[in-house]
Specification:
13% helix; elongated
Length: 128
């Protein structure tokens, strides 16, 4: 599963984490000073690849790390739990990113659509 970043579209999940590309395609409000605002295209691609691989085939509890030696931006992605939300296959993922002195972390839900693409899914897994 290739997760290329065709455009440097910046958007942030919850506490200021973000990613551009086809893993997540919907914008979330940007928080000032978030690490993503200090990442370059290569940083975002490395993060995107780590997130995509974790969503697609990582065991719960396994940590994938990414780093760009050129910018010293880095982070980790950990699948926390896998669950169903209705008919959707979903995963909670702990994300941590660091860039230019800014660190953000949090756990975020993602669900796989009928088209096979993973999307940030606020509210998934929350009992209604």
């Amino acid at each position: 599963m290739s997760l290329r970043v065709p455009n440097l579209t910046i958007f942030v999940y919850g506490l200021g984490l973000a990613l551009a590309g086809n893993v997540l395609a919907q914008p979330i409000p940007i928080w000032a000073g978030a690490p993503i605002t200090h990442m370059n295209r290569d940083d975002i691609e490395l993060f995107s690849d780590a997130l995509g691989k974790t969503l697609a085939d990582s065991e719960d509890g396994k940590v994938s790390e990414w780093e760009n030696p050129a910018t010293r931006a880095n982070g980790s992605v950990k699948a926390v739990r896998t669950f169903k939300d209705g008919d959707a296959h979903c995963r909670d993922v702990f994300l941590e990113n660091f860039a230019k002195g800014r660190r953000e972390r949090g756990t975020y839900p993602f669900c796989q659509g009928a088209d096979g693409e993973w999307r940030f899914s606020p509210g998934a897994g929350v009992k209604k």
